[in-house]
Amino acid sequence: MTNLLALGVGTAPFTQTSTAEAIQFWVLGAIAVIGALGVVTAKRAVHSALFLALTMIILAVFYIVQGAMFLGVAQIVVYTGAVMMLFLFVLMLIGVESSDSLVETIRGQRVAGIAGGLGFGLLLVGGLSRTEFPAFVGLADANVTGNVPGLAELLFIRYVWAFELTGALLIIATIGAMVLAHREQIEKRRNQREQSEERFRTGTHVTPMPSPGVFARHNAVNVPALLPDGSYSRLSVSKILQRREAEISGLPPRPPTAEEHEEDTQ
């Protein structure tokens, strides 16, 4: 940024955006907008998280260019390096598919979201069209004692109430997300004793189900167990694994025999 001294008595020094900074803003700003659009348009949750990480890194570059070195480094280390990676680990562990996001839990939420987004965009465009952009002032005064002490003075002294209210809003948002994600249990959860009594009452599969690899040469989950008579137990292998093996091999799943069908229905 180019420091210019205003001419005249009692005029404070101000700064004006240079050509290089303007080019940097428009180039990185376009990349940040593309990353933000990728967050909401990506079909896979992992790709959406990566686009969000790109947007966070661009914001950190903006902070560093404007002289907020500590804020830029904290943006990369805390948000991109810790929080964003935690999101990616959770997505990789639970395996979220794109089909899950197509189910509406609230009726009309897409229409309301699109209408609200368009309304907010119109308000934002209208406000920016009536806004004047004067020269930047106060950055040198705020960083007289250093960037970190200056940032701490602004956050915890001058704007401490706004900082506390923002923290309270984040806590409320977290509690709201927990309430919305909570699923009401339709029926009472049965304990082990009740499940055992239910098996004896119906008379089907009173004993525990055979585990994979029992009396077999392998203990893998896709290897069926051997019954005492030497035959295979189809109940010991998950039906999901059976369908997955059929999809990988390209062959249709083998239909059960009469004995296997009778074993499944018992």
TrEMBL record:
Enzyme Commission identifier(s): 7.1.1.-
Keyword Ion transport attached: no
Subcellular location: Cell membrane
Disordered: annotated segments: 189-212, 246-266
Chief site of localization: membrane
NAD recorded as keyword: yes
Regions of compositional bias (Basic and acidic residues) in chain numbering: 189-201
InterPro entries: NADH_UbQ/plastoQ_OxRdtase_su6, Nuo/plastoQ_OxRdtase_6_NuoJ
Membrane topology: Multi-pass membrane protein
Catalytic activity: a quinone + NADH + 5 H(+)(in) = a quinol + NAD(+) + 4 H(+)(out)
Family: Belongs to the complex I subunit 6 family.
Name of the molecule in the record: NADH-quinone oxidoreductase subunit J
Name of the gene: nuoJ
